[in-house]
Amino acid sequence: MLLIDTAEELHKLPRTADGPRAVVMTMGALHEGHATLIRSARERAGATGQVVVTVFVNPLQFGAGEDLDRYPRTLDADLEIARAAGADAVFAPAVDEVYPGGDPQVRVSAGPMGERLEGATRPGHFDGMLTVVAKLLHLTRPDLALFGQKDAQQLALIRRMVTDLNFPVEVVGVPTVREEDGLALSSRNRYLSAQERRSALALSRALFAGQDRLAAQAALRARAEAAPTSDERAAALARIGEIRSAADAHAVSAAGTGLPDAVRSAARHVLEEAARHDPPLLLDYLALVDPRDFTDVRPDFTGQAVLAVAAKVGTTRLIDNIPLEFGAHT
Fold first, then answer.
1. Digit-coded pLDDT (tens) for 140-186
2. Catalytic site positions
3. Cβ count near 182 (within 10 Å)
4. DSSP single-letter state for residue 275
5. Which of 35, 36, 38 is nearest to 24 (CA)?
6. Superfamily for domain range 2-174
7. Is 16 exposed, middle or buried (0-12, 13-18, 19+ CB in 10 A)?
8. Does 219 show up as a binding residue in the annotation?
9. What is the pTM of this model?
10. What CATH class is the domain 189-326?
């Protein structure tokens, strides 16, 4: 595996004749989530293709007061993980190699989608992210670029940029990797104390509570709607309420409302409890959005949505999300 630190060396990296070049962009501090991305790139590129991993802590996507200075830099360990996962080359440039003229005056704008959720909390973050992704796509010239679904808004914006600006690359999303307790893998997890980690687990619990509510609510609605008349439907709901009075009381009471509202309610309940933990989970946002533009879904929404959450525990800010499918109903 080659270690490359200049654009000139990268341009001289020969492409394989028979397979695609796949790139995995990281900010270092690699963990199993990154390794999964690299292994997925290796699989997509095949034995005759090429996998390039970039390691670059991009200052443009850190705002004032964020953790740029303390963001972990572990290049030696990163190289071992990349090598074991199947990378052919690692491009690890210095800041002045990526931005040779200093702070760039021309940047990519994330547009309205970049001002929502993460963008509202971290102004300018997505402009900085898209700017460096655009530069790295130009420098690495891949056929495929793989990104984790854990950063769902980032993935959506990269896909939109590639489409809007006609980048000749296929963007591939890779499912979130979680630890055994459900916490989504993140380079920032290492900042958490044992107590903070216990509080942080509420993020994934909230998402799965929303997922479970969707499944239960949809099942209840399907059973109730199977009755051909309104009177019989009411009776069906009553029978369901008797049978599942303990487990499904809330779901039955909300069976006539929009499923998105029920999903949000279930997730929010978990987060409200976590706000009373020691240390508390301080919620930034909980949102159920359309992945095409990250606007809130309506009560009658059908199709794929993303349930996303962001919160701070101690001094560490974490994000997580899961995809949900809302089926058509009558």
1. 999 999 999 999 999 999 999 999 999 999 999 999 999 999 999 99
2. 34
3. 15
4. T
5. 38
6. HUPs (3.40.50.620)
7. middle
8. no
9. 0.86
10. alpha beta
